[in-house]
Amino acid sequence: MDFEYTPEQEAFRGKVRAWLTENFPPELAIDDPMDDRIAPNRQILEKRRAWQQKLAAAGWAGLSWPKEYGGRAANLLEQVIFDEEYFRARAPILPGYSGISLFGPTLMQWGTEEQKKAYLPRILTADDIWCQGYSEPGAGSDLAGLQTRAELQGDYFIINGQKVWTSGAQYADKIFLLARTDPDAPKHKGISYLIVDDMHSPGIEVRPLITMNGHHHFNEVFFDNVRIPKGNLVGPLNEGWKVAVTTLAFERGIAGGGGHAAQVRRLAELARRVEIGGRPAWDHEWVRQELARFLIECEAAKYTRLRSLTRLLKGLPPGPEGSTLKLVGSELGVRIAGFASELLGAYAIMGEPTALVPDAPRWQNRLLSSRQYTIAGGTSEIQRNILGERQLGLPK
Question: Which of 43, 45, 98, 238 has the fewest CB atoms in 10 Å of its CB?
């Protein structure tokens, strides 16, 4: 494997870095983008929307989208380089990420020409913000167990049911969702992939779910006789599971948290400042050993990502790396947060900056938030089952 970028790729990186340096508003910078992927209030949302519009105007939003849909048709390595530089600049996840990364690419594969013309142009410019209606109270890891119904009556579907853990629904204009359109069909059949054009339609209620760190990322969404046109069906009727799997494949690529190496490097800096037992934490062997162990795991994850990237560049189907990275990344995040609490002591539970640990709120948030990634985007138990059954051939 060649770990070096070509001169042309490095030139592209230089263009990305220069543009971000000149255009990225520093007041939008954040340390851990996944933890702050949903704007905490409407004011910050609108600032991030303006930032996405600026990216779109310069051709950076939806970089890998086909040119006919407003993208640059960038290749995979160019997208990787852009992502590296984007997060190096500490830029936030865009308010339109569900549309750009999940719904848009799915619609390109499964949508009608009318649907593509109606929805795709407004995704990149954040004119429409989308949310995803998949999980339900009784259908999380077992998504095919969903019970939300959509009954076809003439030219309309009538939707009744509930979704949960719906990220960003409080700001969303539209939602793509799964609903059971044939209740008598086998479990993975009789499901359809539908678009609800207006989150403010009669019969839709969004209720906030506030996490213990005070963040409002998630929501419950209730549907009570919500009417949508028959033309809002994406893909074949009752065959929505195939469409849903397409979206899940894109979601798996962005799940599992991230930024672990940056967190470890910052903790190494703090270890030289804070004290344990009356002397710098760095002087304790166990602190250095734990930091080294984390960095080794971060390097192993980096090369696993490169192995996955190599498969894609060769045109091969996705391998076990996706589930491996999701599992390892989630569990590593929990252990890093636990170590931060041991290293920083009381500073790890402070919600305000201090002179010694100016980023104390970051570590409080890590301590409270890290566990969620062992559930979101596919639980650790499910990832272990996938690896055990499909890769190792173990019995169910």
Answer: 43
